[in-house]
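Recap from last week: sequence in, structure out.
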Amino acid sequence: MVSDGLQEDVSRWGNRTSSFLSGYPHFQNHTLPSGRVRMVQVPGAVVAAGEPLCPPAERCNAFFEMSAMARASRRRLVMMPVGAALAEEVRARGGHSLCVGSEPVLELETWLDGADPYDRLPVARAVARRGGRVEEWPSAHLSDEQRAVIERLTDAWRDRRDGPMVGFLNVATPLEGIEHKAVFAAFDGKLKEPAAVLAAVPVASDDGDGRIVAWFFADYFRHPEARAGTIEFLFVEAAKALRGRGAQEIRLGLCPLAHLDRGASDGVWERLLRPVLSRYHARASYPFRYASVTAFKSKLGPGRWDRLYLLTDQARGPGLMQALAWAHFPEGPFRARTTRLREGLAKHVVPEVLPMLRPAPRGHGEALRAGAVVLALAAICAILHVGRALHPALQALFEHSRFIPGEWSLAGVFLGPLFHNHTYHLSGDLLSLLFFGLLLEWSTGHRLVAAVAAFGLWLTNPISTWLVGPLLARFRPDDLQAFLQEGDVGSSNAVYAIVGACAVGLRKPWLLLLPFALNGVYLCVVKYSWLSIHHLVGLAGGFAGGWIWRAVQARTATSRPP
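Predicted structure tokens:
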């Protein structure tokens, strides 16, 4: 916690599962007369982290006070997750709510005093029978070795995680505010070191007296080689220890999109979205496997599932999804969404080139701006192609814009590469252009992609004519006339030049260059399209342009002061 005042508000009014986590330092304060709201500010929105830290009777007023503040800066307010009571109160006063999932709760009186929890968790019983034990570590006086264990298991979990790290209330920082948490370590009887650790955070009572009535199992991490069932065993023993302190409940945290049962006050929006969100919950794996999280918590046998809601002060729309994406992925939703692609590509990039590359765009707007050259070129080609069907003048221009080696014209040199013969021709060129072009432009900036694309579009045909014409006249005179009358349109030359530039940064550039080079040779030799050598010229020119860019970047890096 960052201040005594914040910790006092959390201890007194933090009666929600997320209350303690809202005290983490990456959140900002909005001060209220009787408390505060913890929040993050993202493009177009203010996103509040759970219910306000104030008396429950004043939370609805706090929501609309926050709404006025957000509207004054032309932003929307989003608050999540909140309980059903606050959601109902906000709806009654004109706000909007949406059920975003449910939270499983272990009611300890029945969960521990009823049937033996080990009866429903045989894998946990197996760990106990094999010598498993759980220790509670003094959270306010952790030794250096204990802190190192927690950090080591947390890092191992991050390394195993498939997908981007999630922020907001999902930040995995077990040592943050550790002195106020309950820390448990499990030994599974096989490993000499702790097999799992758990950091539980307190949940206060509703009446503001600071009593701890529940604990939230916030952070739990398992050793990669621990026995199966170690986490379940840790949960059972930790719940027993916390029951001895007077805890009434163990809360397991929000299961996003789980148990979206119909509520009495659900509107048309909720009824329409429910089947879509439920299907997404069952099948989605981004940013994590929702169904797996729900299944794990379900097998613990929770006594109830509490519905949790998102509140917003404006009509729902794309801006709401954007706000949620930015809140949960502070580095940018687009950058987070392309994590797997970038990590996979980075394995094939030359190590000394990696520092030269730019980070991925953070958001979709930044992605559009960062890919302006390629997107503009793709748009021009698409507009000209569609325009041919709508305007006879453009069709006539197309007919006069073919590049013909024996009949040069400015239209053939400069407009021909922007036209395409048919939709399949356009689609193939644009797909390749967008994939390789955006990859290059996002990684290196506008200049390199603009230079190599311009070379491919407007120089490869003239250069190919100068190279091939004299050679055919000398060695294949029978093919010369056909070459001089051959017509060409399309932006594939630019694609080849961009591919050549992309290959410069790869550990094995030939893996990318070879298929494109073979296609160019095939067209020349098998199809007797000698003008198709412009593909090879574009590939070589793009590769040379990439080497020049790489050399300039390396020289700039060495001349830059440390």
